[in-house]
Amino acid sequence: MSLADTVIPLHSATAGQPPAVPAGLSQVELTELVAAELKARDAVLVAHYYVDGALQDLAQATGGFVADSLEMARFGRRHAAKTLVVAGVRFMGETAKILSPDKRVLMPELEATCSLDIGCPADAFSAFCDAHPDRTVVVYANTSAAVKARADWMVTSACALPIVKHLKDQGRKILWAPDKHLGGYIQEQTGADMLMWDGSCIVHEEFKATELVLMREQHPQAKVLVHPESPAGVVALADVVGSTSALLKAVTDDPTGTFIVATDNGMMHRMRQLAPQAVLLEAPTSGRSATCKSCAHCPWMAMNALEGVLHCLRTGSGEIQVDETVRVKALGCIERMLDFTAASAANAAATTPPASGFVPNIGAA
Ligand code: SF4
């Protein structure tokens, strides 16, 4: 019997039925089984850079995609598959569903969330917006569909800078949520009037400027790559500040270089694949000023596994649902960003990156 022959109907993993995920399989057998199941179900796997390397490899090998959150959603929207399996965190599944309402969107682990999303509940955020009606509401991708539904614009870590600059040039005052570090960086770069929500990423917040200085002294040839969800003291030490896609590009542009990388260490998998001769060092989250809880790996991204992909495919569990009224409202702020970035694309090649090294690129953590 071939692995493909083991495909079982949806919702059959009940008492008396074979388990959705057979026990005792090797990693290779499990990978082959999930690949066969994806094909049998007309499904495509879309994985974030921060999830386990085995999932990233499977996505690449089966015609899926490994990317940042926005490119994941864009890929899902244009792909012909009826089912999208999103290996990442919940807001990514929701964004995929908002952009592809006619597709089934499954997630291996519905409990996988994000500290930024958790820290910005829709009711409290809506009240904050109501208290400041004179401000244009700009939210980061790492928010729930309900929060996006309350926003005028959604941005990612890469397009936030030109969009906020555009709004500032129009004389708009901004209400920004939820990441205070990214917001602070954008404010410092643009000089915009930005009222901040107090949120942060538990992974990037742990990078330590003091220890980073010491590490750079030990590796003076290294370029420091920093995601802008990191604290300002860490960003100030960066040679390149940018989204996951921008940091990856910095490595592939110098494939034999040495880099100190301040973002989730799941990113190293793709960096090593695309630049195997590069020397990649994880930026410090520990040392004398340590309060390390995640040690540079998102606990929610880590919940994604091959077993979970197989389980959701076989049982239909982990399906993302977004209320249609919320979806339509949230779609407005996402499409505003997509239209803006599409209109800017023709000029992107001629755009000179700012002195800080922030690289225009579409992507978000
Ligand atoms: S790494 Fe940070 S921003 Fe990304 S999903 Fe995890 S908690 Fe959220």
Automatic annotation (TrEMBL):
Cofactor(s) listed: [4Fe-4S] cluster
Keyword field: 4Fe-4S, Iron, Iron-sulfur, Metal-binding, Pyridine nucleotide biosynthesis, Transferase
Source organism of this protein record: Pseudaquabacterium rugosum
One Pfam family linked to the record: NadA
Keyword check for Iron-sulfur: yes
Keyword Aminoacyl-tRNA synthetase annotated: no
Segments crossing the lipid bilayer: none
Domain of life: Bacteria
Name of the protein described by the UniProt record: Quinolinate synthase
NCBIfam families to which the protein is assigned, alphabetical: nadA, PRK09375.1-1, PRK09375.1-2
EC numbers: 2.5.1.72
GO molecular function: transferase activity
Protein's pathway: Cofactor biosynthesis; NAD(+) biosynthesis; quinolinate from iminoaspartate: step 1/1
SUPFAM superfamilies for the chain: NadA-like
